[in-house]
Task: inverse folding
């Protein structure tokens, strides 16, 4: 696929990533380095090149590689399952569905092996997937086993009738016992891998309650009224309380040697698509998360 654009002042990689928001800046840089970009017909391979205003830029995007989606015998924690839905406790480090760079080893590959019937509304690469949680976030998400269930669950999420509650260990002492973060979230203006609080973003509302304070850290319960990408991580960072272990929005160096953020979807509430029964599911903290909490509790006792 070929894209054409008329250049404006500035670096070519910055211009193209802003002109075509579906492409991250790093993706644009890779395409440039691969020789997929020309300025007035001449190939460029340096992302830092600054074309003259009005120059014709042509970007060739290779056709995406076909992903052979196959069932894989990957262990998963199925908290609940019936003929319509399944509730999964996703492990930290597992990607939800295949994409470029993650063609297999995902939750979708696993559920295709363990769960035979899945809805097809989200397409071939996302069978059964109604909502997602980040790769390095652990916890509960619901899978639809047929299209009726999928439509019902998606409607509940859209109407804010499904409840999703997370436990987050954050940096710093959160002063207020509870609060509401109502800040719109959109794509970061310069780093396309990140989200940010931005005036032109989509509505994003998070409710938090302090569960325990550990001096330099605070354990909070966060419920989502909306479900934007990276919402809790962005909102807590905007308050100056980034999630512990979050390398994208938090601190580069952590004392706990973590592989991801301490953010766990521990509670999920929904109405069963067929029976109308209100259901709630829980998932205990993963061992690595619990170990950090135990260490912090011991520190508090020693200080007393």
Result:
């Amino acid at each position: 696929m070929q894209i054409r654009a008329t250049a404006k002042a500035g670096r070519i990689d910055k211009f193209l990533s802003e002109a075509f928001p579906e492409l991250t800046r790093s993706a644009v840089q890779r395409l440039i380095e691969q020789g997929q970009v020309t300025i007035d017909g001449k190939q460029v391979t340096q992302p830092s090149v600054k074309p003259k205003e009005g120059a014709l830029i042509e970007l060739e995007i290779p056709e995406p590689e076909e992903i052979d989606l196959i069932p894989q015998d990957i262990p998963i924690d199925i908290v609940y399952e019936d003929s319509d839905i399944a509730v999964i406790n996703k492990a930290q480090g597992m990607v939800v569905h295949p994409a470029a760079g993650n063609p297999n080893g995902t939750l979708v590959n696993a559920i295709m092996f363990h769960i035979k019937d899945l809805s097809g509304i989200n397409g071939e690469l996302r069978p059964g997937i109604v909502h997602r949680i980040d790769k390095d976030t652990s916890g509960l998400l619901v899978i639809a086993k047929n299209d009726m269930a999928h439509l019902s669950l998606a409607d509940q999420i859209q109407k804010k009738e499904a409840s999703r509650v997370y436990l987050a260990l954050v940096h710093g002492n959160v002063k207020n016992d509870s609060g509401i973060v109502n800040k719109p979230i959109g794509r970061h203006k310069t780093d396309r891998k990140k989200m940010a609080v931005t005036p032109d973003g989509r509505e994003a509302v998070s409710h938090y309650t302090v569960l325990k304070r550990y001096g330099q850290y605070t354990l909070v319960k966060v419920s989502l009224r909306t479900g934007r990408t990276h919402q809790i991580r962005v909102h807590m960072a905007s308050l100056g309380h980034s999630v512990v272990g979050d390398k994208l929005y938090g601190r580069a160096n952590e004392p706990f040697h973590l592989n991801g953020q301490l953010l766990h979807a521990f509670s999920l509430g929904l109405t069963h698509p067929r029976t109308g029964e209100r259901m709630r599911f829980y998932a205990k903290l993963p061992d690595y998360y619990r170990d950090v909490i135990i260490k912090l509790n011991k520190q508090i006792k020693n200080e007393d």
Notes: The first strand starts at residue 2 and ends at 6. The mean pLDDT is 88. The helical segments are 12-19, 25-33, 107-114, 147-158, 231-238, 287-303.
